[in-house]
Design brief:
21 helices; about 50% helix
Length: about 400
């Protein structure tokens, strides 16, 4: 199985190189890893003490950020090295002041893992939620370097827990400790003989609880919103946008702030065909105040504002529910607003919790969206859902202190 795994990694890297001329993300992934060892060797001092954080993408970075901040504050004699797998993390956070060095993670091969770990030699490593790389995990284990998984969550259908999942369970065996999100994950791991796991919760709550206090207010967006009730739709895909266009035709009093998941020109252009009169955030300085106040739709054609935008909304729509899965619901819930999303939410504990608390509402089609949105026009219904959303986030915060207490007690 290890041979098949290595062949799969090789073929994936080969496919990315083939796609370079045609696919912007593939191009970033390949060029970002080119001559990685030379570039790391020129900037990383092996005589320094390091702590290594790895994140799959931007979402995992924001999820693990409270722990990253706490470690940086408590281990001031160490240099922090952050790696990303995806361009969506690296390109946005490559200059973060929370790390001394930021790199793409080299592909998971035996040679790459050996070179990387010899150079970095971290005191310990922290991975957030997902990302299980055999050679890096095995290399850390062989060197006696503690490896921690934070905000982990496990489900019976995952490959680790299948009859053919022995190789992947071996990867889990290299983890020093799992800080998991729910009791179900603790029980599932124990069923397979993995007892080095404990309930800590989701570190995203520690991150999002302070977002309303840190929110960026953009005066021109405030002019656009004015006194109108506003729906903020975050991380949307084309399927979401079609439903939203139908929704706004019925609920004409509402304005829409739309922040698509992909902001490439092709996607933004497709959005503009749905709303030809929509304004683009990239051109917001060119619009008069009268134009802003009269407009109904504002398309956010850049990245980095979404966590502040929810503060403008009375209701939030989270995209992705008709694709691979919904995106971040907590960034909206922390502002105390009801959250709407499509049917692909079962992998996300917080989405299930929000539904149970009466703060989240999942629909399978346009009619369902219309029904829920209509119910939330009742002030009492909306107030109750908003209160439940805010309380849920506040009650779930606290994973970071649990993790930091463990690290302190372990004398790391």
């Amino acid at each position: 199985m290890r041979l098949l795994y290595s062949i799969g990694i090789f073929l994936y890297g080969l496919l990315l190189r083939i796609l370079v001329p045609f696919h912007a993300k593939a191009r970033l992934m390949v060029t970002g890893r080119k001559d990685w060892y030379l570039r790391m060797k020129q900037s990383v001092d092996p005589s320094q003490k390091h702590i290594w954080f790895h994140f799959a993408s931007l979402g995992e970075f924001e999820q693990g950020r409270p722990v990253l901040e706490a470690v940086k504050n408590n281990y001031s004699d160490h240099k922090i090295i952050v790696t990303f797998y995806s361009p969506s993390g690296y390109e946005i956070r490559k200059n973060t002041n929370l790390a001394d060095h930021v790199f793409y993670l080299p592909y998971d091969t035996a040679g790459n893992a050996t070179l990387f770990l010899e150079l970095v030699n971290p005191t310990f490593a922290v991975f957030t939620k997902y990302e299980y790389w055999y050679y890096y995990f095995e290399g850390l284990h062989r060197r006696g370097i503690p490896l921690f998984l934070i905000a982990s969550i496990f489900r019976p259908e995952q490959i680790f827990f299948q009859d053919y999942g022995g190789f992947f369970r071996k990867i889990l065996s290299y983890v020093t400790y799992f800080f998991v999100q729910n009791e179900e994950s603790v029980r599932l791991l124990k069923e397979y003989g993995i007892r080095n796991a404990g309930l800590a919760g989701d570190t995203r709550f520690d991150r999002v609880i302070d977002l309303p206090k840190q929110r960026k207010v953009v005066p021109l967006i405030s002019d656009f919103v004015g006194i109108s009730p506003t729906l903020v739709a975050g991380s949307t895909w084309p399927e979401d946008e079609k439903l939203l266009e139908e929704l706004l035709r019925q609920f004409t009093a509402y304005k829409l702030i739309l922040a698509p998941h992909e902001v490439d020109e092709a996607h933004v252009s497709s959005i503009m065909t749905l709303w030809p009169e929509a304004l683009r955030f990239s051109k917001i300085d060119t619009y008069s105040r009268d134009t802003l106040q009269a407009a109904k739709v504002l398309v956010i054609d850049n990245i980095g504002l979404l966590s502040s935008l929810y503060g403008y909304g009375k209701i939030a729509y989270i995209g992705g529910g008709f694709g691979a899965g919904i995106h971040n619901t907590l960034e909206a819930a922390t502002y105390g607003i009801p959250v709407l999303f499509g049917p692909k939410y079962k992998k996300f504990q917080e989405a299930k919790d929000l539904i149970e608390q009466g703060a989240g509402f999942s629909f399978v089609d346009g009619k369902g969206l219309m029904d829920f949105f209509g119910r939330l026009q009742n002030q009492s219904n909306r107030t109750e859902a908003s209160k439940a959303a805010r309380q849920y986030v506040q009650q779930k915060a606290g994973a970071t202190p649990i993790i930091m207490k463990y690290l302190k007690n372990a004398n790391l």
